[in-house]
Amino acid sequence: MESDCLEVINLWNSRHDDRTVVAPILSEILEHSTSFRSFCIQHIPRLANYPAHLCARHASTLDVTECWFDSVPSIIVTSLLANSAEASFVE
Fold first, then answer.
1. Where would I find the RNase H type-1 domain in this sequence (predicted)?
2. Number of structural domains found in the chain
3. Do 39 and 52 belong to one domain?
4. 53/78 same-domain check
5. Is the dihedral of CA 69, 71, 74, 78 positive or negative?
6. d(CA 87, CA 69)
7. Which of 5-9, 10-14, 34-38, 84-88 tops mean pLDDT?
8. Do 84 and 57 share a structural domain?
9. Which of 64, 80, 82, 90 has its CA 20 to 30 A from that of 45?
10. Residues 41-67 pLDDT 10s
11. Is the per-residue pLDDT at 87 higher than 70?
């Protein structure tokens, strides 16, 4: 699993501070990680995780939960197209 949040990566690696806000989420990830033969979480730069960053930023502006069942949200399409365009210019 990859994340651009170094603080979360450090919390995962240390597993010493169970009083953080994200501790329940990390516990759930740990529980699900046992379903895999191997599992690791690593830090990546935000630019390498741009679509996820845009989606998270969009989600932080919402007052209610949004669900999509038969369509793709425009924020996903836009972020993937932007990411694809940036990747095509890499030499």
1. 1-59
2. 2
3. no
4. yes
5. positive
6. 29
7. 34-38
8. yes
9. 64
10. 999 887 777 777 778 888 888 888 888
11. no
